[in-house]
Protein backbone atom coordinates (compact mmCIF):
# COMPACT_ATOMS: atom_id res chain seq x y z
CA UNK A 1 0.00 0.00 0.00
CA UNK A 2 2.15 2.87 -1.21
CA UNK A 3 0.27 5.79 0.31
CA UNK A 4 2.00 9.14 0.23
CA UNK A 5 1.64 10.62 3.70
CA UNK A 6 4.38 13.22 3.52
CA UNK A 7 2.02 16.11 4.20
CA UNK A 8 0.95 14.29 7.34
CA UNK A 9 4.21 15.11 9.02
CA UNK A 10 4.21 16.98 12.33
CA UNK A 11 6.40 19.66 10.71
CA UNK A 12 3.51 20.70 8.46
CA UNK A 13 1.13 21.12 11.39
CA UNK A 14 3.80 22.91 13.37
CA UNK A 15 4.06 25.39 10.49
CA UNK A 16 0.27 25.76 10.46
CA UNK A 17 0.01 26.55 14.18
CA UNK A 18 3.13 28.73 14.11
CA UNK A 19 1.53 30.77 11.33
CA UNK A 20 -0.98 32.03 13.89
CA UNK A 21 1.51 34.83 14.50
CA UNK A 22 2.01 35.31 10.74
CA UNK A 23 -1.45 34.82 9.15
CA UNK A 24 -0.37 35.81 5.63
CA UNK A 25 1.40 32.41 5.38
CA UNK A 26 -1.81 30.49 6.07
CA UNK A 27 -3.15 30.74 2.51
CA UNK A 28 -0.17 28.93 1.02
CA UNK A 29 -0.19 26.29 3.74
CA UNK A 30 -3.93 25.71 3.33
CA UNK A 31 -3.50 25.36 -0.43
CA UNK A 32 -0.65 22.90 0.03
CA UNK A 33 -2.69 20.88 2.52
CA UNK A 34 -5.67 20.78 0.14
CA UNK A 35 -3.54 19.49 -2.75
CA UNK A 36 -1.75 16.95 -0.56
CA UNK A 37 -5.02 15.72 0.92
CA UNK A 38 -6.37 15.21 -2.62
CA UNK A 39 -3.42 12.92 -3.37
CA UNK A 40 -3.87 11.11 -0.07
CA UNK A 41 -7.60 10.59 -0.72
CA UNK A 42 -6.90 9.05 -4.13
CA UNK A 43 -4.20 6.74 -2.80
CA UNK A 44 -6.25 5.97 0.31
CA UNK A 45 -9.12 4.84 -1.91
CA UNK A 46 -6.78 2.45 -3.72
CA UNK A 47 -5.32 1.20 -0.43
CA UNK A 48 -8.79 0.61 1.00
CA UNK A 49 -9.85 -1.31 -2.11
CA UNK A 50 -6.88 -3.68 -1.86
CA UNK A 51 -6.78 -4.07 1.92
CA UNK A 52 -7.43 -7.45 3.49
CA UNK A 53 -9.49 -8.08 5.52
CA UNK A 54 -12.33 -5.89 4.28
CA UNK A 55 -12.67 -4.32 7.74
CA UNK A 56 -9.22 -2.73 7.39
CA UNK A 57 -10.29 -1.20 4.07
CA UNK A 58 -13.37 0.25 5.76
CA UNK A 59 -11.20 1.73 8.53
CA UNK A 60 -8.83 3.31 6.01
CA UNK A 61 -11.70 4.80 4.03
CA UNK A 62 -13.49 6.11 7.14
CA UNK A 63 -10.38 7.60 8.72
CA UNK A 64 -9.29 9.30 5.50
CA UNK A 65 -12.78 10.85 5.25
CA UNK A 66 -12.63 12.03 8.87
CA UNK A 67 -9.23 13.55 8.15
CA UNK A 68 -10.76 15.34 5.18
CA UNK A 69 -13.47 16.86 7.37
CA UNK A 70 -10.81 17.99 9.85
CA UNK A 71 -8.80 19.56 7.02
CA UNK A 72 -11.91 21.44 5.86
CA UNK A 73 -12.39 22.93 9.32
CA UNK A 74 -8.70 23.80 9.50
CA UNK A 75 -8.79 25.62 6.15
CA UNK A 76 -11.94 27.49 7.23
CA UNK A 77 -10.28 28.63 10.47
CA UNK A 78 -7.16 29.67 8.54
CA UNK A 79 -9.35 31.79 6.27
CA UNK A 80 -11.14 33.32 9.26
CA UNK A 81 -7.81 34.21 10.84
CA UNK A 82 -6.63 35.86 7.64
CA UNK A 83 -9.76 38.01 7.68
CA UNK A 84 -9.25 39.04 11.31
CA UNK A 85 -5.58 38.37 12.25
CA UNK A 86 -5.86 39.85 15.75
CA UNK A 87 -8.81 37.71 16.93
CA UNK A 88 -7.44 35.58 19.76
CA UNK A 89 -10.53 33.32 19.79
CA UNK A 90 -9.98 32.41 16.10
CA UNK A 91 -6.29 31.78 16.82
CA UNK A 92 -7.23 29.30 19.57
CA UNK A 93 -9.75 27.63 17.26
CA UNK A 94 -7.11 27.27 14.55
CA UNK A 95 -4.71 25.65 17.01
CA UNK A 96 -7.46 23.27 18.20
CA UNK A 97 -8.30 22.35 14.60
CA UNK A 98 -4.63 21.67 13.88
CA UNK A 99 -4.46 19.46 16.98
CA UNK A 100 -7.60 17.56 15.89
CA UNK A 101 -6.18 17.05 12.40
CA UNK A 102 -2.95 15.73 13.91
CA UNK A 103 -4.95 13.17 15.88
CA UNK A 104 -6.84 12.16 12.74
CA UNK A 105 -3.53 11.76 10.92
CA UNK A 106 -2.34 9.27 13.54
CA UNK A 107 -5.58 7.31 13.07
CA UNK A 108 -5.05 7.18 9.30
CA UNK A 109 -1.48 6.02 9.79
CA UNK A 110 -2.51 3.29 12.24
CA UNK A 111 -5.16 2.03 9.80
CA UNK A 112 -2.59 1.96 6.99
CA UNK A 113 -0.13 0.08 9.19
CA UNK A 114 -2.80 -2.45 10.15
CA UNK A 115 -3.42 -3.11 6.46
CA UNK A 116 0.31 -3.39 5.87
CA UNK A 117 1.07 -6.21 8.34
CA UNK A 118 0.98 -8.98 5.73
CA UNK A 119 3.18 -7.01 3.37
CA UNK A 120 5.71 -6.32 6.13
CA UNK A 121 5.76 -10.02 7.09
CA UNK A 122 6.53 -10.94 3.46
CA UNK A 123 9.32 -8.35 3.29
CA UNK A 124 10.84 -9.71 6.52
CA UNK A 125 10.62 -13.31 5.30
CA UNK A 126 12.14 -12.41 1.93
CA UNK A 127 14.99 -10.64 3.69
CA UNK A 128 15.66 -13.67 5.89
CA UNK A 129 15.62 -16.02 2.87
CA UNK A 130 17.99 -13.71 0.99
CA UNK A 131 20.39 -13.82 3.94
CA UNK A 132 20.30 -17.62 4.02
CA UNK A 133 20.90 -17.81 0.27
CA UNK A 134 23.85 -15.43 0.57
CA UNK A 135 25.32 -17.57 3.40
CA UNK A 136 24.90 -20.72 1.31
CA UNK A 137 26.50 -19.07 -1.73
CA UNK A 138 29.48 -18.02 0.40
CA UNK A 139 29.87 -21.52 1.85
CA UNK A 140 29.68 -23.05 -1.64
CA UNK A 141 32.32 -20.60 -2.89
CA UNK A 142 34.73 -21.48 -0.07
CA UNK A 143 34.04 -25.19 -0.40
CA UNK A 144 34.58 -25.11 -4.16
CA UNK A 145 37.88 -23.28 -3.63
CA UNK A 146 38.94 -26.01 -1.22
CA UNK A 147 39.46 -23.69 1.74
CA UNK A 148 37.10 -25.55 4.04
CA UNK A 149 38.72 -28.34 6.02
CA UNK A 150 37.09 -31.72 5.49
CA UNK A 151 36.78 -33.97 8.56
CA UNK A 152 37.44 -37.01 6.48
CA UNK A 153 38.89 -37.38 3.02
CA UNK A 154 35.66 -36.64 1.19
CA UNK A 155 35.53 -33.87 -1.38
CA UNK A 156 32.96 -31.14 -1.69
CA UNK A 157 31.95 -32.50 -5.10
CA UNK A 158 30.83 -35.73 -3.35
CA UNK A 159 28.34 -33.76 -1.24
CA UNK A 160 27.33 -31.16 -3.74
From TrEMBL:
Q: Which UniProt keywords apply?
A: Cytoplasm
Name the Pfam families for this protein: VBS
Q: What GO biological process, any one, is recorded here?
A: actin cytoskeleton organization
Provide the taxonomic classification: Eukaryota, Metazoa, Chordata, Craniata, Vertebrata
- GO CC field: cytoplasm; focal adhesion; plasma membrane
An example of a GO molecular function for this protein is: actin filament binding
Species whose genome carries this gene: Mystacornis crossleyi
Residues in Vinculin-binding site-containing domain copies? 16-117
Domain of life here?
A: Eukaryota
Q: Which SUPFAM superfamilies match?
A: alpha-catenin/vinculin-like
Report the subcellular localization: Cytoplasm
**What is the protein name for this chain?**
TLN2 protein
Main location as per UniProt: cytoplasm
The question of whether Translocase is a record keyword is answered with: no
Amino acid sequence: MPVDVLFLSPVFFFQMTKSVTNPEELGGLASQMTNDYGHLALQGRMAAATAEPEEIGFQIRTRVQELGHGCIFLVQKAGALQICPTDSYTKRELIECARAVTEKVSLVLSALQAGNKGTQACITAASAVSGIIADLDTTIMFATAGTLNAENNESFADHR
